[in-house]
Amino acid sequence: MVTDKQDQWFSELEKENNERLLQLEQAMQTKDKLHRINAEKIRKQAGSAADFKAKHPRLSFLKRYNVIIMMLLFWLITVVFNVAMFIG
User: How many C-alpha atoms does 12 have within 13 Å on its Cβ side?
Assistant: First the structure.
C-alpha cells in the first residue's frame, strides 16, 4: 500500500519533471532563434554602417564626434563674446 503511494507519487513527480524539461527545451529553442535573429540584424547593421562610412567619410566623422564638435563650437562662441565685451 505504501509502495503504491510512493510509486504513484514518483510517477507524478516524473510527469511534472518531464513537463518542466519540455518547457525548458522550448524556451531554449526560442532563445536560440532570437539569438540568431539578433545576430543577423547586427550583421546587417554592421554591413550598412561600413557601406555608409565608405560612401560618406566626412559625414561619418561628424556623426561620430558631434558632441565634441558642438562643445567646441559653444566654447568658441563664449570666447568670442567675452573678447568682444572686453574690447567693446
Answer: 6
| pLDDT higher than 90, residue 51 | no
H-run or E-run covering 80:
helix 66-87
pTM of the model: 0.50
Scored b (16 or more CB within 10 A) or e, 14-48 reads eeeeeeeeeeeeeeeeeeeeeeeeeeeeeeeeeee
**C-alpha atoms less than 13 angstroms from C-alpha of 13 in its C-beta half-sphere:** 6
- d(CA 46, CA 22) in angstroms, rounded, equals 36
- What pLDDT sits at residue 36? 95
Closest listed residue to residue 29, CA positions, set 40, 21, 17, 19: 21
Helix axis angle, 57-64 to 2-55, nearest 10°:
120
